[in-house]
């Protein structure tokens, strides 16, 4: 085996971990794949003869690529952050993909991703690397251009935001599913009272229709407002397919075999506290929804 084959094999051993790390940092499957590909290109061109810890080297390179992407994204400001829904990881309820499961280790639900989206790039990177991948602050510091103590403070601020902004979902997915099923049954029946019964009083719903469909993009708060909107959009021609969305109970909505939206639910204490809906046709086209009528 020559040197290039050996490097390719070592990279492949790390690829799933690097992709999971990039997805947590970026909230975008396509950008995560681009970041991992860029890491491979840099590895293939680099002289690694003096690298003792190749896994650490790859982590550092991927993190720097992600940090650059996050900073560039902040300058673009393509859409309002409050209604942006990160790329969901969608699978059939009874057939999760092994690589998708690796992406979702530690239950990185959409609600957590949305809080991560609100962090400054350096805070997000420090939190993800340290709290999710156990990277020491001594190694994080040069990536973000700070001292180890300053990197620790970045992660600490991020941790407080995450703990205060991302509700802890019920661990039982079957229990989540019963609540989600009750939500759609009540919506189809036009039963506002039953809808409000399964919604937390402070429930938040994000509808991300994409930059080209602002009329379908909205942030709705409160059980009564969410219930009215759910009844308004219930339609017999739309089929609701159970799915796992970032490891939690969710659905894919289709019409005439075409995916219209992906719904991720956060259920806590038996009630829905957050619903995140991705309806952007361009981003939906980039997801593998073939098992849901697409």
Please compute the radius of gyration using only Cα atoms. Answer: 20 Å
**Can you tell me the CATH class of the largest domain?**
Mainly Alpha
Number of alpha- plus pi-helical segments: 12
Low-confidence stretches: none
> What is the domain tally?
2
CATH architecture of the largest domain: Up-down Bundle
Quote the CATH topology of the largest domain: Butyryl-CoA Dehydrogenase, subunit A, domain 3
Description:
The protein is α+β, with helices and mostly antiparallel strands and about 290 residues long. It folds into two domains: about 150 residues, Butyryl-CoA Dehydrogenase, subunit A, domain 3 (Up-down Bundle), CATH 1.20.140; about 120 residues, Nuclear Transport Factor 2, Chain: A. It has a seven-stranded mixed sheet with strand order 1-4-5-6-7-2-3. The longest helix has 24 residues.
Give a brief description:
This protein has 294 residues and is an alpha+beta fold. Helices cover 53% and strands 17% of the residues. It folds into two domains: 3-75 and 91-165, Butyryl-CoA Dehydrogenase, subunit A, domain 3 (Up-down Bundle), CATH 1.20.140; 173-292, Nuclear Transport Factor 2, Chain: A.
């Amino acid at each position: 085996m020559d040197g290039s084959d050996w490097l390719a094999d070592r990279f492949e051993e790390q690829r799933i971990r690097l992709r999971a790390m990039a997805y947590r940092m970026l909230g975008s499957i396509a950008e995560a794949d681009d970041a991992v590909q860029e890491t491979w290109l840099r590895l293939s061109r680099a002289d690694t003869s003096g690298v003792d810890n190749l896994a650490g080297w790859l982590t550092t390179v991927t993190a720097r690529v992600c940090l650059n992407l996050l900073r560039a994204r902040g300058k673009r400001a393509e859409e309002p952050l409050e209604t942006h829904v990160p790329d969901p990881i969608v699978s059939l309820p009874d057939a999760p993909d092994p690589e998708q499961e690796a992406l979702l280790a530690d239950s990185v639900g959409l609600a957590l991703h949305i809080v991560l989206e609100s962090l400054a790039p350096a805070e997000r990177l420090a939190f993800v690397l340290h709290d999710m991948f156990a990277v020491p602050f001594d190694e994080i510091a040069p990536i973000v251009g700070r001292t180890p103590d300053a990197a620790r403070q970045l992660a600490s601020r991020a941790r407080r935001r995450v703990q205060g902004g991302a509700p802890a979902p019920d661990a039982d997915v079957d229990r989540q599913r019963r609540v989600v099923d009750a939500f759609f049954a009540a919506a189809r029946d036009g039963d506002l009272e039953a809808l409000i019964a399964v919604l937390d009083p402070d429930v938040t719903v994000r509808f991300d229709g994409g930059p080209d469909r602002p009329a379908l993009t909205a942030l709705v708060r409160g059980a009564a407002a969410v219930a009215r909107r759910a009844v308004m959009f219930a339609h017999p021609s739309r089929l609701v397919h159970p799915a796992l969305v970032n490891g939690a109970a969710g659905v894919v909505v289709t019409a005439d075999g075409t995916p219209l939206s992906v719904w991720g639910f956060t259920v806590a204490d038996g009630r829905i506290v957050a619903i995140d809906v991705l309806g952007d046709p361009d981003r939906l086209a980039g997801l593998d929804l073939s098992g849901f009528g697409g």
